[in-house]
Amino acid sequence: MPSIFTAQLSELGEVYQVTNVFLSEAKYVLPNAKFIDLPSDVALKLKNALNIGKSVSIEKKLIDSPFSKDIPIRHFVIEEAKILEQMKSAVRAKVNSRISAYTSLLTAFDMLEFWLITGKLNAMGYPVLDENNKEQTFLEIINTGNEDLITDLERFLEVKDIFDSMMKKYRGLKQYFREIDDCDTEEELKDVVDSNQGWLVN
Question: Nearest 5°: CA angle at 9, between 86 and 41?
C-alpha cells in the first residue's frame, strides 16, 4: 500500500534534517526537493516532535542506501533543537523551497528535447556543445537556410539558457549552504543571510 505521508529533508553535514512532514501529494508541488515516504505511525511521531520544537535528523546512509522501504522510527534522532541549528534549518528550508520553484521552469521533457536536438545536430556535423567553436557552428547552421535546423538551434539555445542559469544558481546554493554551515553564532548567520539577499533572483 503506497505511503500517504512524506517528509521533506534538508542536508546538515553528515545527516539529513527533517524540516516538515505532510501528505504525499505535496511533494509534487516541489518536485526537486528531497523527500522520503513514511509509514503513518512514523510520520505522526515525527510531526508531533516537530510541532513541539524538537529537532529530527537521520543519517544520510539510511536514506541514500536504505535497508528497507519503510524506515523505522528508531533510525531517526529526535532531540531538543539548538537555537542556532534551528535557525540554519529554517534558512535552508526557505532557500530549498525557492530553488525548487525556480527549477520547475525546466521540465524533464525540455531536457529530453535538448539532448535529442543536440544528438541530431552533432550527428550532422554541428557540435553545438563545443564551447571553443560554438559561434562558428551556430553560424554554419544559420547559413544552411534550413528552417528545421534553424528551429532546432533556436530551441537548443532557449533550453540551454535556462539550464545555464539554473546551474549558476545551484552553484550559488552550494556556496550559500557552506557559508551557513560555517556560522558559529546567530550574528554570523544573520550576516550571511543579509549578504545573500536577492541572489536567487539575480
Answer: 100
* Residue-number span of the structural domain to which 156 is assigned: 108-201
For residues 75 and 133, membership in a common domain is answered with no
- Report the distance separating Cα 145 and Cα 30, nearest Å: 42
Burial class (CB in 10 A: 0-12, 13-18, 19+), 54: middle
Grid coordinates of 67: 535497508
- Confidence band of 29 (pLDDT split at 50, 70, 90): very low
Using one digit for the tens of pLDDT, what is the confidence trace for 59-104?
988 887 765 567 888 889 998 767 787 778 777 777 766 666 666 6
Cβ atoms of 31 and 105 within 8 Å: the answer is no
Residues 6 or more apart whose Cβ sits within 8 Å of residue 18: 7, 8, 9, 46, 50, 56, 57, 58, 76
Residue 21 lies in a domain: yes
* 124 and 49 inside one domain: no
For residue 94, what is the DSSP state?
H
Both 15 and 61 in a single domain?
Answer: yes
Q: Which amino acid is at 186?
A: E
Strand 5-12 relative to strand 15-23: parallel, antiparallel, unpaired? antiparallel
More confident residue, 184 or 152: 152
Q: Which three cell numbers stand for residue 112?
A: 529530453
